[in-house]
Predict the 3D structure of the following.
Amino acid sequence: EVRLMESGGGFVQPGGSLRLSCAASGFTFNGSDMKWLRQTPGKEIEWVSTITPGRFALYAESVKGRFTANRHNAKNTLYLQMNNLTPDDTAVYYCASYSGSTGVSTTPEFDYKGQGTQVTVSS
């Protein structure tokens, strides 16, 4: 059974930082591209980042330079360091696995995703 469990969300003021984690199990983590996605109520799910098993990462323009994805393959764990947060970053953040692209996917498509963790940025 594939399991993805996010943690680390919370409430932060604009300009602040958070580090999200995602514990993965039930699939070959070190062979899978992993994504961070986010969603706000009433909007479609949005792609944030994709990181390959070799830790090559791509980012949405809206987070580039502020967010950093990383992964520890031996621990089956994915991370997202989020700096200089703004209210527009408020969303439920999901980690997801994806194996459907020959290149590095920059879309919200996924095979499995977790339950999500809420990030709220507000003064």
User: Anything to note?
Assistant: Residues 33 and 52 are 4 Å apart (CA to CA). The longest strand covers residues 18-25. The chain has a mean pLDDT of 96. The two ends are 40 Å apart (CA to CA).
